[in-house]
Amino acid sequence: MDVTSATASVTMTTNPLIGRYISDLKATLDLLSTAEIDTVIDLLHAARMSKHTIFIVGNGGSASTASHFMCDLAKNTQRPDMPHFRVVALTDNMASFSAYANDEGYDQVFARQLEVLIRPNDIVIAISASGNSPNVLNAIELANQSEARTIGFTGFDGGKLRQIAQNSIHVPSNCIEQVEDIHLMLEHLICTALKQPA
User: Fold this and answer.
1) 97 with 30: CB under 8 angstroms?
2) 160 — phi, psi (to 5°)?
3) Residue 2: is its pLDDT beyond 90?
4) Is the same domain home to 7 and 86?
5) pLDDT of 14
6) 29 or 2: which leads in pLDDT
7) What is the count of structural domains for the chain?
8) 3-state secondary structure of 150
9) Is there a contact between 137 and 106 (Cβ–Cβ < 8 Å)?
10) pLDDT (tens digit, 9 = 90+) per residue, 3-32?
11) Are 124 and 55 contacting, i.e. CB atoms less than 8 angstroms apart?
12) In this predicted model, what pLDDT tens digit does every residue of 99-128 receive, in sequence order?
């Protein structure tokens, strides 16, 4: 069988879900607000230059994105002519995380960590597909009360997070897998923009 025949054979037997998933993902990407993304890039750049701290929170797959975002901001944006990012993923210290969850409730795992660390003009990024996770919302409410800047990464209808975060990037999709795909893509896009020369 030559290469052309092999390719045709694979194409004809491919599960239709694959093509549908990819086309839906492309359609959702086209609906993203580049203005929202640009605003977040500007906020993070300002925090970098003023040496304010960025805190990132999320649950489940969004916790993984929070950790990934922290790693990329801390390492992959380094430039000799600019300060390094001060960034903390509040998902990553399992001793603190589980102590607060056990003693004070899962809805307090981020807010209780934040309350001793947050300063005015720091940034809290909350990643939540539904926008309705109580522990994420409590962190944003505390940050707002502390005169920090707040950013939500949301999906579906944005939930309460889209309403209470001062800034947000909304992924207009009801497919959780694709919302999480795009949240990860967004953090890569943002970090790429932040490491480019001005």
Assistant:
1) no
2) -70, -30
3) no
4) no
5) 78
6) 29
7) 2
8) strand
9) no
10) 555 555 555 557 999 999 999 999 999 999
11) yes
12) 999 999 999 999 999 999 999 999 999 999
Between vectors from CA 164 to CA 133 and to CA 115, what angle results, nearest 5°? 70
Pair (142, 186) in one structural domain: yes
Mean pLDDT score, 41-48:
98
Joined together, the tokens standing for residue 155 give 């999906």
Q: Tell me which residue of 62, 46, 42 sits closest to 129, measured CA to CA.
A: 62
0.90 exceeded by pTM: yes
Judgement on whether residues 52 and 137 belong to the same structural domain of the protein: yes
CA dist 93 → 8, 69, 110, 119 (Å): 50, 15, 11, 20
User: Domain check: are 13 and 62 in the same one?
Assistant: no
Looking at the structure, do residues 67 and 55 belong to the same domain, yes or no?
A: yes
Query: Domain check: are 22 and 62 in the same one?
Result: no
Residues 132, 50, single domain; the answer is yes
Q: Range of 7's domain?
A: 1-31
